[in-house]
Design goal:
Length: 176
Amino acid sequence: WTKESAYYDALRTKNYLKEKNLDDLWPFINVCDKHDLIEEMVKYLIDKDKKSFIEQYCQRANPLKTPNVIAALLEYDADEKHILSVLDAAGSMCPLDELIKEVGERGRLKLLRKFLEARAAEKRTDASLHNALAKIYVDANENAEQFLKTNQFYDAATIGEYCETRDPSLALIAYK
């Protein structure tokens, strides 16, 4: 009923469900999802060692909230392995622009490398995806020149500016 009903106080219901320490956490998750209490939901599930519910949430309930979940996991210093398994659970249903923004703001873009490479292998052409991959390759000093010469989907101005302070020769390639 927490999913369908609009006739309850969200904070009181959330707190009540937390206090009850239920085995079935879906009513709590539904309240948090419906009322955008994602960070608190993630913290509670981590604290209660119910991490599998986080993956299930991103896979089945609301993959569109995966960027918010990943941001919360990073804030709570979650294990990288768990973060990657949450990403894998959401897969291609995860909104890339928001994910890249959230993870990039925390300086952890390289964490997404394999996930983003998998999305690129799906033939996705999102500029944000290819910009993120370019930044990762430039920072890792791995195949950056080849990527910049052969990839047509990154934004030249964004990546050129990014490369200016890191490697001016790559900036020239990006601007071409």
